[in-house]
From TrEMBL:
Domain Response regulatory residue range list: 5-120
One function term, GO molecular function aspect: DNA binding
Residues annotated with 4-aspartylphosphate modification: D55
PROSITE patterns xrefs: HTH_LUXR_2, RESPONSE_REGULATORY
Origin organism lineage: Bacteria, Pseudomonadati, Bacteroidota, Cytophagia, Cytophagales
Organism from which the protein derives: Roseivirga seohaensis subsp. aquiponti
Gene Ontology BP terms: phosphorelay signal transduction system; regulation of DNA-templated transcription
InterPro entries, A to Z: CheY-like_superfamily (IPR011006), NreC/VraR/RcsB-like_REC (IPR058245), Sig_transdc_resp-reg_C-effctor (IPR016032), Sig_transdc_resp-reg_receiver (IPR001789), Tscrpt_reg_LuxR_C (IPR000792), WalR-like (IPR039420)
Superkingdom classification of source: Bacteria
Keyword terms of this UniProt record: DNA-binding, Phosphoprotein
Pfam family, one: GerE
CDD domains recorded: LuxR_C_like, REC_NarL-like
Protein name: LuxR family transcriptional regulator
Length: 211
């Protein structure tokens, strides 16, 4: 029996059953399965598995929400996300939550063993279908966000909520000129200078990464 302990969650019964059977046949220790986010969160809390393998889209809580909750509450469990989404923004979102693995569902059964072993050994594993440039792009976006000050990130969240400069100034008890100065600094840090409506477009595309 492989000593790596796992819990699994997916709202597609056949996929969940197939994944569980595959992992058991390979000797992994599957502690439990669930079909929605709240149920798997209960399993994680109860069993403290080494790894949780989660569908990105589930009822109650999606896989990334479960990972976020556990990260915020300092759980030891590592996460592997299963998804049909291969867009860069989903990779970035997963990386921002310190997810250890991200597999495309169509490749899951072929790559799951290698992914689990890599994650169990402290590494990261992203589906081979992803281009390295997409993963690098996601990392660059996260690093740019991390380089912003707390005030700048707060202003980005207000922009994402469609707040005007005056509304942002009123909420933060600062002048409109100060808000514009922050916007200018953000544009520079995000390398958006010279792009018409660049900041608004960037925020709409990346608001899922803002906290």
């Amino acid at each position: 029996m492989n000593k790596v302990t796992l819990v699994l969650a997916d709202d597609h019964p056949l996929l969940l059953q197939g994944l569980e059977s595959t992992l058991i046949s390979k000797g992994f220790n599957v502690l439990g399965t669930a079909s929605d986010g709240r149920a798997v969160l209960k399993l994680i809390t109860e069993f403290n598995p080494e790894i949780a393998i989660l569908d990105i889209e589930m009822p109650e809580m999606n896989g990334l929400s479960v990972a976020k909750h556990c990260m915020e509450h300092n759980y030891d469990t590592k996460f592997i996300i299963l998804s049909y989404h291969k867009e860069t923004e989903f990779i970035a979102r997963a990386k921002s939550l310190n997810v250890s693995g991200y597999l495309l569902k169509e490749d899951a059964l072929e790559e799951i063993e290698a992914c689990i072993n890599e994650v169990a050994n402290g590494g990261k594993y992203f589906s081979k279908a992803f281009h390295l440039k997409d993963i690098a792009s996601a990392q660059t976006t996260l690093e740019m966000i991390e380089a912003l000050t707390p005030s700048e990130r707060k202003i980005l969240n207000f922009i994402a909520a469609n707040q005007s400069t005056r509304e942002i100034a009123d909420k933060l008890f600062i002048s409109e000129r100060t808000v514009e100065k922050h916007r200018s600094n953000i544009i520079q840090k995000l390398d958006l200078e010279g792009k018409p409506n660049g900041l608004t477009t960037w925020v709409l595309h990346n608001k899922h990464l803002l906290h």
